[in-house]
Amino acid sequence: MTFFESIQTCFRKYATFTGRAARPEFWWWILFLFLMSAALGIVSEKLSALFSLATLLPTIAVGTRRLHDIDKSGWWQLIGLIPVIGWIVMIVWCAQEGKGPTHFDSPAPPEA
Description:
The protein is mostly helical and 112 residues long.
């Protein structure tokens, strides 16, 4: 997945908490957030804050899908609220290679 495909996917799945997100999708999205926040912060702090608020939900959604890819519940994102230790744990988890089929995969649609 390329940088721009990742951004499109994350905006298309703005509030989709089901399914899985591969490492490139997640990390390209994080890079996009960092670059845009930095660029907008140079222009205006209010603009940067507005951008962060607008991208909060898709960031939580892609984080949830990334955790699903390593067979963890999206609720584990809350561990990131623990300073330093929680951040390290989240970075390690999000850097892990995705597992095979998990119980977070969508069931196959019924055949007609």
